[in-house]
Amino acid sequence: MNKIHPLILCGGSGKRLWPISRTRSPKQFQKIGNDASVSFFQAAIQRHQGELFNQPCIVTSLRHRGIVKKQLSEIQSGGQIICEPVPRSTGPAVLAAAYKLHEENAEALILIVPADHVLEEDINPTIEACTAAALKGHIITFGIKPRGPERGFGYLVPCEPLPAFPDLMKVEQFIEKPEASKAQDLIEKSEATWASGIVLFSAQTLIHEYEKFDPETAAYVKFSMLRAASLPDAIYLDATAFGQATPGSTETIVFENSERVVTQTLNVTWNDVGSWSAMFEIAKPDSDGNVFHGDVVSVGSTNTMVRSDRRLVGVVGLEDIIVVDTPDALLVTHRCSSQRVKELVETLKAKARPEAEYYSTVKPEMVSLIPSSGLEHGLEQSAFDVGTGQLPLGGFLKMDAGSCHQLIVVKGTVEAQGSAWSKTVADGGRIYADPDGPVHITNCGNCDAQLLFMTYGAEATSPVASPVFQDV
Are 268 and 118 in contact (CB under 8 A)? Predict the structure, then answer.
């Protein structure tokens, strides 16, 4: 049997689920519910396992490689990881995976699986029934029967059955995020379905269509895979070639233009969890309609969601409110306004607030050292602040601009990004402050990183936490 390769795309920033989802720690890696639950990414992996499937192929960024490996190991899953050097949206990401899997098997089948959706029913029997059509060159997009005229989804408009496969419908049109009135007309007049983002096709078909509609990008992506560094932990696409690819989604480049696209409707409970109101919908409320995660005490509150990471949160007399409390940020919004959280994140970015990008993760404990007169000349009048810290897997740190600060990686692997440079540093490597701007440091390894911080000279004056290393 020709097994299917689940393709998990781990990109996007999930702005509408701020503050648990941030640019460098997006929603797919967050837990669906309480601390005992799996993440959205892990749930997507577990949804497509068994005899019908190969191990998953995951396309992600270098900075998320470590958290991908950790979360795979937590659910005892393997997987082939492809690292993008720069983000180029879903089109080049899917195409890179298609070139790799086609190289391994000319008849490879691929199932695109969104990493941040929730499905309650088993759809694998339906997927299996569509494999013959995929091997014949069709692209099967799975639609969801709409619950209403939702503006945030794409819509598939069917036209007529596919002669050789009467259970599949040809797609007349794909419409991305229409206005509510247009969405209502699509549902009533054309029996349109929501586009779930789950798509089945052969690698060969996707490559053929992409090379037809955007041959220049296809050439760059193919070259980036040919020149990729294949290491035991991941495949690293060539940065120069991949960076030349035109950003674009698979939908706009291929699916909206190809005559090979057909659809199969799934009668399932589905949610793309694109907002806090959607998170509320997938949860199980108590007798008052409330959803509480963490240490929460409520008096007279109804239909309210509270999520607290560390401390007690008390709510009194709230109705239809969402409260999300994290160590460095607090969100309070009405349920009907939760889609506007994205606007809040854009405002934070415009104000250069680090909370839009990063989590608070590490505070190095610094100790001042005054060298004795026995040290070599030149250090006699200098002081040092030396400290250690642990940067969790997927965690981030910012080193302020300056010339007297450095960091040594004692254990682990981190990625450092300066004003006009970047590098990956492993055990024993050093990172120096950039005089032209801050250095952002990411734990991109597969374990917590042990770090040694040092500030020397005139700026090393305090026996407490140094201001030049900031948790972000």
Answer: no
Percentage of the residues of the chain whose pLDDT score is greater than 70: 89
Domains of the chain: 4-271 (3.90.550.10), 284-356 (no CATH), 365-471 (2.60.120.10)
**pLDDT tens-digit series, residues 382-439:** 556 777 778 877 677 778 777 678 889 999 888 888 888 888 888 889 998 888 888 8
CA angle 224, 229, 234 (to 5 degrees): 105
What number of other Cβ atoms are within 10 A of residue 238's Cβ? Answer: 17
| Distance from C-alpha of 239 to C-alpha of 116, rounded to nearest angstrom | 26
Tokens standing for residue 390? 């642990």
CA-based Rg of the chain, rounded to a whole angstrom? 25
How far is residue 363's CA from residue 9's CA, in Å, rounded to a whole number? Answer: 32
Longest alpha-carbon distance in the chain: 90
Q: Can the peptide bond before residue 19 be classed as cis, meaning omega within 30 degrees of 0?
A: yes
End-to-end CA, the chain: 49
Question: 3-state DSSP: the chain helix, strand, coil percent, rounded to 5?
Answer: 25, 35, 40
**Those residues with Cβ within 8 angstroms of residue 377's Cβ, 6 or more apart along the chain or in another chain:** none
Look up residue 192 and give its two tokens: 């349109």
How far is the C-alpha of 333 from the C-alpha of 324, rounded, in Å? 9
Q: Which residue has the tokens 């005899």?
A: 51
Closest CA to 39 of 48, 49, 51, 31: 31
Q: What is the pTM of this model?
A: 0.78
65-74 and 40-47 helices cross at what angle (nearest 10)? 60
Q: Nearest-CA neighbor of 24 among 459, 286, 397? A: 397
Nearest to 60 by CA among 179, 214, 231, 236: 236
Structure-token pair, residue 352: 């250069």
Chain length of the chain: 472
Residue with tokens 């007309």: 185
